[in-house]
Amino acid sequence: MFRKLLLALAAVCLMTGSAVAADAFPNRPITIVVPFAAGGETDLVARTLADGMSKELKQVMVVQNIVGASGVAGISAVTGAKPDGYTLGVTPSAPLAMHPHMRNVPYTLDSFDFVGRILKAPYIVM
Fold this sequence. Notes:
By secondary structure, the protein is an alpha/beta fold. It is 39% helix and 10% strand. The chain has helices at 2-16, 41-57, 72-80, 94-97, 99-102, and strands at 30-34, 61-65, 87-89. Strands 2-1-3 form a 3-stranded parallel β-sheet. It starts with a helix and ends in a 24-residue tail after the last helix.
């Protein structure tokens, strides 16, 4: 299952890659942005994913933790990145599903090309 997810992720990255040249993708490190501090659940999942993707794609995967505003700073960094397949974001649902209803955020769900779910971790609102 993990291998299938990696292959699907690589295919999406290829589709969003630059059409500049016939260079093989990826030909430089890929950054995975985590909008929370290192050591938390999201960071551990992203680092596990990065390790598997690095082995499969034979390319360096850099996990970058961008903290602030309960995840909004990191998510905003993803939306501001060049859409070339070299910047990915890993986040739980709150910054995407809940925060836009609680505050003004500089993104909408349409700001993203979703690749897929890598972990099922339900949250409860009480």
